[in-house]
Amino acid sequence: MDALSATFAALADPTRRAILAQLAKGEATVNELAAPYAMSLPSVSRHLKVLEKAGLVSKSRAAQWRPCRLEVAPLQSADEWLTPYRVFFESRFDRLEEHLKTMVAEREDRPPQPTEPSHPVETSAAKTPAKGRAAKGRAAKGNTPRTPQAKGR
């Protein structure tokens, strides 16, 4: 695996990213790094081993302690690889911001227009479905149920 892939693979885990954030504040021992997590020391050590293989962390020896230190070179390489994409998206966001400003300005220049409902209004006939076979037959023949007519017609 190439160095850039190893860096991104190491950064894929949220625990390892949190460990790197701790190390960005300064050197720390494995016990100090493990303190915020509900996991065993061997589990934290395995995370540190992945970070070491990616070159993101190094360990030194100070008496019986082995403090860990953040190594920035792999992060700089990842940042260099990401730079063209960052430039691309920043230019897109700048254009989007200008477009939105133009839309807001145009909206402020026009008088408000009434809006139509996004869903058609249902009629009472559409709300009540026909019931039973008789209703289906009448609908097919074009007949509708008869209503009592007023006397005198």
Question: How many separate helices?
Answer: 7
Compute the CA-based radius of gyration. 34 Å
Tell me how many strands there are: 2
Strand content: under 5%
Q: On the 0-100 scale, what is the average pLDDT?
A: 81
Helix fraction, binned, reads 55-70%
- Runs with pLDDT <50, length 5+? none
Descriptive overview:
This protein has 153 residues and is mainly alpha-helical. The chain has a domain at 3-71: Orthogonal Bundle (Arc Repressor Mutant, subunit A). The chain contains 7 helices and 2 strands; from the N terminus they run H-H-H-H-E-E-H-H-H. A two-stranded antiparallel ribbon has the order 1-2. Helix 1 (3-11) packs antiparallel against helix 4 and helix 1 (3-11) crosses helix 5 (73-109). The chain starts with a helix and ends in a 12-residue tail after the last helix. The model has no long low-confidence stretch (mean pLDDT 81).
